[in-house]
Automatic annotation (TrEMBL):
Coiled coil location: none
A Pfam entry, by short name: NUDIX
One of the GO biological process terms: ribose phosphate metabolic process
UniProt GO cellular component terms: cytosol
Molecular function terms, GO-annotated: hydrolase activity
Protein name, per record: ADP-ribose pyrophosphatase
Span of domain Nudix hydrolase: 41-175
PROSITE patterns the UniProt entry points to: NUDIX
InterPro entries in UniProt: NUDIX_hydrolase-like_dom_sf, NUDIX_hydrolase_dom
UniProt keywords, alphabetically: Hydrolase
Gene3D superfamilies referenced in this protein's UniProt entry, alphabetically: Nucleoside Triphosphate Pyrophosphohydrolase
Length: 193
């Protein structure tokens, strides 16, 4: 069976903001007709599984307005600096959100967060050889990050938190499960960043 080449025959921008743009599109379908689809085009993001020397990961807990609750997550951020290398973005976000620097960076996984309606991707890095950012060089957090909670949790306990429903953020779930699997395989599957 040959894969059908779906083509966009019409596209209308419905909303454009600083983080994403929403389009209504008409797309050819495998059955021969067309269908309307709303698509969110996003800048993409990076996430970081920061693992210390005693196998603990850095988790942050912050308020997420869309779901109306505080969620346990990985340090993460948008790819909002034009032309910035992904490792540089990840290092900046780790320092800003968790007050941590890392000397070693590897790629864990790449994910589409919600491909049914969005093209957003996230690259999850594994950061190791961690050090604390000195107090005088720490980022001043604002908005929902002003009261974020930072906690180090044993990697196996973080995985258990997923199965207890305490960690539900998709990037955190994917990143933590990938890190646990990579660790169990002796880090052989990692790609240097």
């Amino acid at each position: 069976m040959t894969a059908f080449a779906h083509e966009t025959v019409a596209s209308t921008s419905r909303y454009k903001g600083p983080i994403f743009e929403v389009f209504s599109e008409e797309v050819t379908m495998s059955s021969g007709g067309t269908a309307k689809r709303d698509v969110v085009r996003n800048k993409g993001a990076v996430g970081i599984v920061a693992l210390d020397e005693v196998d603990r990961v850095v988790l942050i807990r912050q308020y997420r307005h869309a779901v109306g609750r505080r969620l346990w997550e990985l340090p993460a951020g948008l790819r909002d600096v034009e032309g910035e290398d992904l490792v540089t973005t990840a290092a900046r976000e780790l320092a800003e959100e968790a007050d941590v620097d890392a000397a070693r960076w590897d790629v864990l996984i790449d994910m589409f967060n919600s491909p049914g309606f969005s093209d957003e991707t996230i690259r999850i890095f594994l950061a190791r050889d961690l050090t604390e950012v000195p107090d005088d060089k720490r980022y001043s957090r604002t908005d929902e990050e002003a009261d974020l909670e930072i906690k180090r949790v044993d990697l196996d306990e973080a995985v258990a938190m997923i199965f207890r429903g305490e960690i539900t953020n998709a990037a955190a779930v994917g990143g933590l499960l990938a890190a646990a699997r990579a660790r169990d395989e002796g880090w052989a599957t990692l790609q240097r960043a």
